[in-house]
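Here is one such protein, fold included:

. . .
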Amino acid sequence: MKRIVECVPNYSEGRDRSVIDRIVGAIAAVKGVKVLDVDPGEATNRTVVTFVGAPEDVVEAAFRGAQKAQELIDMRQHHGAHPRSGATDVLPLVPVSGITLAECAELARALAERLFRELGIPCYCYEAAAFTPERRNLAVCRAGEYEALPEKMADPARKPDFGDGYNETVARCGATNVGARNFLVAVNYNLNTTSTRRAMAVAFDVREKGRKAREGGSLTGKLLKDADGNQLWIPGTLKGCKAIGWYIDEYGIAQVSMNITDIEATPLHVAYEEVCRAAAARGLRVTGAEIVGLVPKRVLLDAGRFYLEKQQRSLGVSEEEILKIAVKSMSLDDLKPFDPKEKVIEFLMEDEQEAAARERLIRMSLKAFAAETASESAAPGGGSVSAYMGALGAALATMVANLSAHKRGWDDRWKEFSDVAEQGQALVAELTALVDEDTAAFDGIMAAFGLPKGTDEEKAARAAAIEAATLHAAAVPLRTMEAALKALPLALQMARSGNPASASDAGVAALAATAAIRGAALNVRINASSLADKSPAAPLLSRASAILSDALNLQEQVLESVNNHIEL
C-alpha cells in the first residue's frame, strides 16, 4: 500500500493573501507534495492548509511552511478570534494509508525537535505525539496562548518539549504545537424530518459524550447530579464521535452532523448503521449521508466490503465496484452527485500525466495493445505479454470464484469463493502493473546504453549502469513468474470445487498462468545471459527453474480435474 500522510497546519494569518500564498508556495515547492486545500479566515486571522504526500516529503514541506511563516508573521502584531500559540500554531500529521499513527507520532516528534534545533521555534508535542498524558490535549499545550509564553517557558512544568527559554525569536514567532492524530471524517446524516430537536436527540443517542442524565430518562426532566454536585451523563453508543443536530435551509431537512475522530474505533459504515438504528427508534429514517471534505480511500473500501458481506456477495470484485457499493449503500449521492475522484485523497493526489506515462500500455484497448506489440518497436515484448497473460489467467480464476459465489444452492459457500476472488483480484492488479514495468525495465537498459563513453570514468559508469539495468530487467520477469504461480492454486481450487459449468475457464486460467511463467522464464534467462558478472544471476535462474517446475505440475493437476468435468 502506498504510504501517504496528510498534514493540516494552521497559520496565524488569514487576511494578507500575499503572506498566505508565500507560505503555501514554500509547501508546494517540495516535490511529491500536493496541496489540496487552502482555507483562510478573516475573523480568526488564521489559515488552514491541507496537503498530502509520502511521509518524508510531507515532513519536509511542513518544516518549510513553518520556516516561511516564521519569516513572514510577527506574533506581536497578531490578533484574531481563534486561540493560537505561534505563527505556525498547530502542525498535525495524519496517517492516510500505509503508515500507522504511532509512526506519524515519531515523525512529529522528530519534526518538533528539528524546528527548534534549526529555527529556534519552541514546540509542544500533542495528541499521539505527546510525551506526557496531559499534553495529549491540545488545549493544555496552548493554555494561555501566545501571551503566556514568557511565564510558561520559565516554568519547568509548563515549558515546551523542545525549547530553552524566552528570547527575541520566540517573541516574534511564538511556539508551535506539533502532533499526530487519526484522520477525522466529517459526515452529515440526512433525516426525513425538519425537526432540529429530533435530530439533536439522535445525535445525543450516538455521540460518545452522550446526553445529560435527567429524571425518568426524559428529555425535559430534572437534571441528575452525583453526590458532589457534578452533572451525570448518559454516554452515547459511538466511540470517538462528536455530533449535533441542525436544520439546513439549503436542503429543507434536518441532519445529524458528526465528526468521527477515531475511524479505527468507529468506521464510517458502523456510524452510518448506528445512526440509522437510533433514528428508526425515534420514528425517523436516514435518507442518505453527506461527506464533508475528503476521506482516505480505505474508508469507502471498508464500507463497500461491509455491505457486500452483509449481502453475502463476493468481495473479490474491482475496486471501482466496491466504491460504487459504498456510495449506494449509504446514499452518499442523496443530496448531490458523489464522485470519488473529487472526494478521495488518493485520487486527488494522482498526477494524471505521470499516471498515464506509468500505465501507458495497460490503458490501451486490447486492439491498440496488440497493434503496439506488432509494431517495429522492441517493446512491449515477451516480458510484457507474459505479464498480461498472467493477469488474464488470474482474472479467469477470479471469474470462476465469483460465479461460484453466486451459484444457486451454494449460498452457504459464498465466503469460501469470496476469499479466492479477493486473492485473484490482488494478483490481477500485481500482474497488470508488471505489463508496463517490464517495458520500463527494457527502456532502462536502452537508456544505460545511451550514456556517454568518452573518458575511462564515463565508460566505467556506463558499464555499471548497463549491468544494473540488465539485472533489474532479469528480476522483473521473475516477479511475473512469482505472481503467476500464485494464480495456479486458485485455478486448481476452482477446477476441483468451483462451479462445474465454468470448469473450462479454470483450465484456461491455468494454461494462461503457465504460459506467462514459461514466457517470463525466457526473459529471465536472456537478460541474465547478458550480465558481465554472472554471480547475481545464479539465484534468479535457480528460482525461475523451481517456479517453472511447480507450475507445470499444477497445470497438469488443473487439466486433469477439468477433463474429469467435461468427459464426453
Q: What stands out?
A: Residues 474 and 527 are 5 Å apart (CA to CA).
